[in-house]
Structure formats: C-alpha cells, structure tokens
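Dear colleagues,

For the upcoming journal club I promised to circulate an example of a predicted protein-ligand complex. I picked one with inosinic acid because it came up in last month's discussion. The inputs are reproduced below in full, followed by the predicted structure.
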Amino acid sequence: MQLCFATNNAHKLKEIKALLGTNFELKTLQEIGCNEELPETTDTIEGNSAQKAEYVWEHYGVNCFADDSGLEIEALNGAPGVHSAYYSGERNHARNIERVLKELANEDNRKARFKTVITLTLSGKSYSFEGIVEGVIIETPRGTDGFGYDPIFVPEGYDQTFAEMTLEQKSKISHRSRAFAKLVLFLKDHS
Ligand code: IMP
C-alpha cells in the first residue's frame, strides 16, 4: 500500500520506515508532489494532526498519516499545548523554556505531560492514535540531549530529564513512540 507520512523530518521518516517493514511504500510529502506548507490552524493538537492528514488526502488523493505533539502543563490549563513550538512568540527552545519557567514560578503543581496525536486518513476515513507520557516540570533545566522542552521535563518514575537520557532511553517511553506503536499495530492488522 502506498502511504504518505506528512513530514519533512528525514529522521522521523527513517524511524517509521524501519518499524513498518516492506508492506508499505512510504512516501514523503515531496515524493507525492506536495511542496507547500500544510495547514495547522486549529486550536488543538488533535485538530492539527487531522487537518494535515486530511489535507493530503483531499488535495493529492494519497492515503496519509500526520503527527502533532505538544507539552500540556496542568497549572497552566494545558498550555503551551498546541502552541508549544512558538510559545515565546518565536521558534526558540530556550526562550520557550524561559516563558514556561516564569509562568510556573511560585507554582507548587508541576504536573505536565507530553502528548502526540497521529491521524491516519485511509480513503477519506480518519483514525487517530494518541501517545502520552506523564511527568513534572523542574525548576532549572538539566541535560543537553534532545530538543524542545526536554531539559525541564522529568517523566514519571525517573530522576533524569528527557535531555539527560539517550535517544534510545527516551524512545522507549516517549509520547511519540507510544503513538507510533499504536499506528504500527493498526497498519499491520490492515495490510
Ligand atoms: P511537533 O508537532 O512534533 O513538531 O512538536 C511541536 C512542539 O512541541 C516542538 O517544537 C516542541 O516545542 C514540543 N515537543 C514535542 N515533542 C517534544 C519532545 O519530545 N521533547 C521536547 N519538546 C517536544
């Protein structure tokens, strides 16, 4: 089956290709002739992942899946959420972290979770798969690996931040891996 992964991230594509095996001919956006920015204008993580996958089906007639992720902090009513990438007003991880820490100053409730939603659109019908990892936001960033909010997020049951873990360690428990595992199971059943 031909299937597009709506991403321009070569690293994500390689990882998912390895998980899916040879039953699927996985295509990038470029490979199906889609060179425009996909719309991401809804106000939820779920909405944005569906919007991207459905856009590809509607405009290119190719079965497709798209992912969207974000950090949800309980004391901030779920912010930064869908705005995670640009929370400081620009796509800058250090500034985004700074804003979060400022907003959480004097806050005892440090609970947070990372969430990924993947939408798969097959012949116009959409299915969604969610991956969540619960944890807490610490007061001072630690670690140099990873990206985004990794230096301030400690997953439940661990002492290290995501940025102090190796990619292999993070991948075993991450929101993204959990959502992708559900997608892979579903696709294996449907191939
Ligand atoms: P995306 O939908 O995967 O591009 O994620 C959107 C934004 O959420 C990123 O730019 C990061 O700010 C944040 N984010 C998502 N996943 C992670 C993660 O695994 N670690 C840290 N930050 C993340």
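Two points we might discuss: The chain has five helices and six strands. Helices lie at 10-20, 45-60, 93-104, 167-173, 175-189.

See you all on Thursday,
B. R.
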